[in-house]
Structure formats: C-alpha cells, structure tokens
Amino acid sequence: MAVENSTPQTIKPQIVDDTASELTFRAVFSGLLVGSLIGASNVCIGLKIGWTFGASITAAVLSFALFKAMGSMLSRPYGAKENLITATAGSAAGTMASAGGFVACIPALELYLRETQGPGHDLTYLQLVIWAIAIAFLGVFFAVPLRKQMIVREKLRYPSGTAAAETIRAMYSSGAEAMKKAKLLFYAGVFAALVKMLFSIKPLGLGHFSDFSFDDIGLASLGILGVSFASVRMGISLSPMMLGAGILVGPKVGWSLFAGAILAWGIGAPILFHQGIVTSATENGAYLAAFRWLLWPGVALMVAAGFSSLALQYKVIGKTFGSFKMLLQGRKIEAQEGDEDDAPDPFPIKWWAVGMVFATTLTTVLAQHYFGIPAWMGILAVFLSFLIASISVRATGETDINPVGAMGKITQVVYGALHPGMIPTNLMAAGITAAGASQSGDLMHDLKAGYMLKVSIRRQVIAQIIGVVVGVFTAAGVYRLLTAAYQIPGDDFTGPAVMAWHAMAKLLADGIKSLPAHAMTAASIGALIGFAMPFIAKIKGVGKWLPSPIALGIAFMVTPYSSLSMWLGAVVTSYYTKRNPEAVDSYGASLASGLIAGEGLMMVVVAVMLIIGVTWVG
Known about the structure:
Blueprint (H helix, E strand, L loop, with lengths): L24 H25 L6 H15 L9 H20 L5 H13 L7 H19 L3 H7 L5 H15 L1 H26 L10 E3 L21 E3 L2 H35 L11 H26 L2 H15 L20 H23 L3 H25 L4 H15 L4 H31 L3 H29 L10 H15 L8 H18 L12 H7 L4 H20 L1 H31 L7
Antiparallel strand pairs: 1-2
Helix pairs in contact: 1-2, 1-3, 1-16, 1-21, 2-3, 2-7, 2-8, 3-7, 3-15, 3-16, 4-15, 4-17, 5-12, 5-13, 5-15, 5-16, 7-8, 7-15, 8-21, 9-10, 9-19, 9-20, 9-21, 10-14, 10-18, 10-19, 11-13, 12-13, 13-15, 14-15, 14-17, 15-16, 16-21, 20-21
C-alpha cells in the first residue's frame, strides 16, 4: 500500500547534477543498508497487519543526511543522481519482504505443511533465498519493456516515484530540511525500540500494559451479551509500530479499521458466542475461536472488492492489451508530442533477454523441484504473471495503489481449476504473480523518478537487481528468526495476508465444506458488500463517506488491539493536520517510518534472544 502524496501529472524531465557519477559504491551500499533495515521491519509489520511500506524516500533522506554530515570527509559531493540510485537499491531491498512472499504465500504454505505433515517441513533458509531471488528477478525484467510506453509516452503519474524525485530536488535546494527529517526518523526509531524492549523484559512486568483492553480501564460492564472485551482483545495497543502505521495509512483507512473492529469483534463475536455458533472452553481461547469464523467474511469482502476494483480498471486492462497487440503485430507506436529521447543510457535488449530467460528458467526449475509444480505450469505462471504485472504496473502508475493481493487471487483461481486440490501449486504459482507485480511496480516508480532526474536506466536496473539479491538475505533471515521464536500466524503475528491466501487455497481445494457452520452465509454477504463498494464509491459525493473495503476486511483478521491502535494514530494525525498541515506533510512520514522500523528491528533482537534461550524476555 503506497503512502506518499501524489503530485501534478505532467512534469517535464529535468537534468540534475549532470556531471556526477551515478552507480557508485557509496550510493549502492547506503541504499542496501537502509533498504535491508526497512525490509526487516517490513517483514514484521507485514506479518502483523498484511501491509508493507515503501523505502525509496526513506533511503534517499537518510543517505543524504549521512553524507551531508560527513561533509569534508568526502572526496567529492554526494550528488542527486547518486541519491536516486541509493533510493532505487534501497526500495528494491525493502520490497523483498513482500516480493519474496515472506508475509503471504511462504508462511501460508508452511501453515499448510504443518497442518498436513506436522512440524519440520518448512523451507530451508537457502531455499527461501534462491526462490525469492528468482521470482523477484521476474518482476524486475517485467518492468523494463513497459517503461517506454507507460512513463515516456503515456506519462502516467507514478505518484510515489514523482514524490521521490521531488524530495531529492528539495533536499538539494534545502539540505537543512532533510537533516531534520533524518534526525526525527532516528530519534523515533530509538524511542520505539526502547519501548518495545521495556515491554519485552519480563521482570519489569510492563508487557501487560502494552495492550489496554477496555476491561483494564473499568469498562467491562459495556461488554455485549456477556462476552468480556478482554477475551476478544478489544482495546488499544500502545505499540509504536501500530501507531506509526496509523500515521501512514491516513484517516479514511483508520476509520475503516475502527468500523471493522467494532463490527467484527465488538458486535459479531459476542453474537457468535451467544448463539452458540462458536464456543470456547476458556476465555483465552475465545479470540481464536471467533477468529476462525470471522476470517471468512473478512477474506470474502477483501477478495470481492479486489476483483470489483479490477473490473473498474477495464480501461487500464484494455490499454495494456492494446499495447501487447501492437507489439505482437510488429507495429511501431508513433511518436507523440513531448516524446523526447529520455534514455541516454537504456538497458541493453540483449541483457534483458538473457535476464528474462534466466529468471524464467530458474523459477520454473525451482517450482518443480521445491513444490512439485509441473514445468508447463511453471512457464504458464510466468507468462500469466507478466500479463497481470502489466495491469498492476499501469494501475499503480495511475492510482499509486499496486493491487498485488487481488492479482495473486486471480492466479489462485486459475490454478485452482488447472490443478485442483493441490494447495502448494495454488499458493506458489500465485506467489510468482505477486512477486512480479510487487517488484515491477516498485521499479517503475524508481524509473519514473529517474525519467524526471535524467538518471541512467541501465544503472537503475542494475541497482535494483543488486538490491533484490542483497535485500533477500535480510528479509529471509528475519522471517526465519521470527518463525523460530514465534508461532506464525499466532498471538504476536496474526498474519492477515497469510490467512487470506491460506483460506483461499483451502476453499478452492476443499470446497465450501471446509467452512465453519454458517460461515458460507457470512462470506456471501461479505462478498456482495465487497463487490458493491467500489462501484458505489464512484457515485459523486458518496465515495468519501464509504470505508475502505480492504481495511474493513483486514479488521476482521487482526486483533482489535492492532486495528484500534492504527485508528488512534490516524485520528491524532488527522487532528494535528488541521492545526499544522505543513508540519505533518514534512515530518509525518519520517516519524511514522522511525516508529515502524524501531519496533520492527527490536522485535528481531528479541526473537534472537528467545532463540538463544534468554529467559527474561518474551
């Protein structure tokens, strides 16, 4: 989910720092360092809320501040074009949390293996790394041939990429502002890490206060139908990560999470227990019992809304396949006004062909070897992923939203029909699609910024490839540390995206008999509502009052603690925006990024301590 603000649609390319080198060691290294840290925190937050956040602007700001502080120690100034290379490498590394499948298809597959074969059948660290590199490479090479049409000729906005370019321009005209943002991000990260550490030290006994249920503040009497608020985890989390996520998602998503939490857990769960639809022997098991039922209307709402939103993109799809038709017919697309030669250093076509063949072959071979997917199905998955990624790349160019989840669900449905009953095939073929959409969308935003700043395409693609290769080691390592220390999905990491992918695969494999009692009715209602909402939102004056269907569905699948905490972060930010919009616009993203990264990295530290047997944390 993108968080940067959009900017005007048509911006002419501009040469910035024309004489400076671009693909330097310091530019790539600083990007990899920041991107790997963001990738680590993205694994954590992705397994908590199902979303991850971009790294481009954060990498650009932090690297600028670092080299600005070094000042006279540098042999030559750190240039604007270097800064964009840093942002490109950093965003590639940070995106590996989602592109590698570590917050969705991989844990969903391992959940299935635990259910069917018992513990001990997880993928090895090396398998995770090689697989993630292969499928992420596909996304990188998907983007290269689409750039000319979508960025140069059609001049799609790519708001996050445009924001990154404008941020770099602003930093090089006023470096003091960038230094303030970097300091705020650092201090917020340290604060969040300390808070998480204090909550994790058992002898201090502060862990109880990290989540405040309404029972804790004397409102237990407001429980519905005799169901305790504490039993369904209704309350506010003091997690800096969740508050930071609330700052980024904005008020509409925040209020949607609030509405979903109240509807699912404040009203729905008590009714389920009162009617005897779900039962639990203990109060501590009430949340899990309700979750197994509420999961289905939440997933149905999200999936239907995704398909409905995709249907509304019929013009996008038509344009995409129109471009394909022209290419297949060998027709040359006529140059348009303003279609100047923007590529002083294009990515060589031979390199692209070799890379595409290599990534396709590696993905197909690994899919067969690791998951038993026949070679022809692997090749079909790559081809299907390219078509779907092309639609996704255009959608994110126009709206800044990359519909990775909906795209993955398309492939799940296709492979549910092609290879029925085979859940590993269903999940991992869809994982190929999601990786392609994720990495190609990420690179296209960077290429948009490169178009504006006149940066070498070839060097940007190389930086992206390096970011993929290096970033995956951190993302896979953090994922393995977390799975060794925590149950995923579980209390600490509810994994809403994991459960959505797993539920979809099981439904396609087992049919509606796999659903709990009456869940099919609820899922049908959720699907109807989810499908209708994007169409209703198109009605003038109505859309701004409708909740986000994705956020509404996610609230059914995460603890109310998390949903209401993000709501609190969004509401406080919205209130402060009315009083001081310039401050929020300038520093809100830095504050939020620091809170998310600080707690995320400390969660990795705590996981390591748990693995080595430290008894005073947990």
